[in-house]
Write a structure and sequence with these properties.
binds zinc ion; about 45% helix; five-stranded parallel β-sheet; binds BIS(adenosine)-5'-pentaphosphate; alpha/beta; about 15% strand; 7 strands; 9 helices
Length: about 210
């Protein structure tokens, strides 16, 4: 399947992408992780890192390039997470891939702030935790690989506020874009990760 997961920062796109990859054996295409993996990257538009630390969007040509390359390697399908984030990226994607469905994870603003400020990530294997909602077995240590967990630089309250406004202004309008194409499935993103996965999986199955 070719799945697009859309939703605000902290909606659980990364968390649920993992389930999709395990279940369907597709590629996880995530511009956020790709940019973080390359944190000293320099481009003619500046350092992506600096846009990210301010909570702003990285210039389109940089992320479009990441996505084209990843799509060309995703023969068994993909789950796209964190892309597209504005109208121009959505048009670009339209020219390069067909989608089976677009799943929107819906979560209230208050919950998003709690999730993001409490998130901890493994710098080695990328697994995501939450200090309260999804803690590792040993505080501060990755269950999967034993590395010390860290907080993302853009998970401070100030940057989270900026990311949420950038989402409202640039990315939220894409919901209508995909609704008009008949691709959109709304999923309640507020339950436990397992509850959300149950609903998301049903939405995927019904669209395939
Ligand atoms: P990116 O890395 O894509 O971040 P994001 O979209 O802001 O999304 P997040 O990763 O913050 O949230 P998520 O929905 O994946 O939630 P998660 O599963 O981790 O982008 C970062 C930056 O890169 C951007 O600001 C921009 O600068 C740049 N960038 C990236 N793509 C770009 C693009 N296309 N164009 C331009 N710039 C781009 O969950 C969050 C927390 O909640 C975790 O702690 C998790 O454990 C917990 N949690 C998850 N599900 C639940 C649940 N059901 N109940 C309770 N807790 C839960
Ligand atoms: Zn790890």
């Amino acid at each position: 399947p070719r799945i697009l997961l859309i939703g605000p920062p902290g909606a659980g796109k990364g968390t649920q992408s993992k389930n999709i990859v395990e279940t369907y054996g597709v590629e996880h295409i995530t511009t956020g992780d790709a940019l973080r993996a390359n944190k000293d990257m320099e481009t003619e538009y500046g350092k992506p890192r600096e846009f990210m630390d301010r909570g702003e969007l990285v210039p389109d040509p940089v992320v479009n390039e990441i996505v084209v390359t990843a799509l060309s390697e995703a023969d068994e399908g993909f789950v796209l997470d964190g892309y597209p984030r504005n109208g121009s990226q959505a048009e670009f994607l339209d020219d390069h891939a067909d989608l089976d469905l677009v799943a929107l994870l819906e979560v209230s603003r208050e919950e998003l702030v709690d999730r993001l400020t409490g998130r901890r990530v493994c710098p080695e294997c990328g697994t995501t935790y939450h200090v309260e909602f999804n803690p590792p077995e040993t505080t501060g240590v990755c269950d999967e690989c034993g590395s010390q967990l860290v907080q993302r630089d853009d998970d401070t309250e100030e940057t989270v506020t900026e990311r949420l406004s950038v989402y409202e202004e640039n990315t939220a309008p894409l919901v209508e874009f995909y609704e008009e194409r008949g691709l959109l499935r709304r999923v309640d993103g507020e339950g436990t990760p397992d509850e959300v996965w149950h609903d998301l999986r049903q939405a995927i199955e019904s669209a395939l």
